[in-house]
Amino acid sequence: MDRSAEIADFLRTRRARISPDAAGVPADGRARRVPGLRRDEVARLAGISIEYYTRLEQGRAGNPSPEIIEAVGQALRLDPTEREHLTNLLTRPGTVRRSAANGPQRVRPGLYLMLQTLDHVPAFVLGRRTDILASNALGRAVLTDFEALPPGKRNLARYLLLDPESRSRSDEWERYASETVAMLRLDASRHPNDRQLADLIGELMVHCPEFSGWWHDHKVLQRTHGAKSYRHPLVGELVFQYESLILPGDPDQTLCVYNVEPGSPTAERVQLLRNWTAPEPIGTDV
């Protein structure tokens, strides 16, 4: 990842989305050649010099202080996830909190037990790069059978963006896919030296027509909670309220649980799926 280019593109796209009126910047009579705020306007809002902000946007400001990053974040109205992303980009390699975490990920035994306990709803554990580290039977039934794939292919982004089946599973495929790209963007700033992530991005860039546009939007997302709907070929429409919980002991693992409203049509359909995925009882000779 070209760190300087990433910093420049992220800051340019963030200031381009803010109108001078919204930022409270008075008109000065100058013609605007770019949308949104100019560099000098961001610098003034952040309380820093235009020269320093220019070096910052060009990736030449060294290692700026947390106070400077916070001031720029406020000027650009960044949300908490965007501020973390900016901090990751502006922090020199080797000092980012997660930059060295590139080894194989392991799911501890207690999490496998938790997935079994949650056998009444779809659940799975996401790792770096949106790798699917573990899943329960309903999680595999609702999305796809990740355990049937080679270990290196068990990846949510790869499934959503490259598997034609995923496009037919939801009318909101475009939103889910673009949000997943935003998750990869955040992961890339957390792990700038992750070779497997770079390979995945290259694969998606080549094989998913929409990926390039979403990637160059420079949106970032930390998934937390929300609604999802899927169209299952056996039971029909499924509507979930999901919760994503960063796991204690490993901030690069997230437990994702798809909850259902009790008594709803989805609850009935999930129960049908649960019956369908239940193992066959073992017969006993008498």
From TrEMBL:
Domain HTH cro/C1-type residue range list: 30-83
InterPro entries: Cro/C1-type_HTH, Lambda_DNA-bd_dom_sf, MLTR_LBD
A GO term for molecular function: DNA binding
SMART domains reported in the protein's UniProt record: HTH_XRE
Lineage top rank: taxon: Bacteria
UniProt xrefs under Pfam families: HTH_31 (PF13560), MLTR_LBD (PF17765)
Signal peptide range in chain numbering: none
Protein's UniProt name: Transcriptional regulator with XRE-family HTH domain
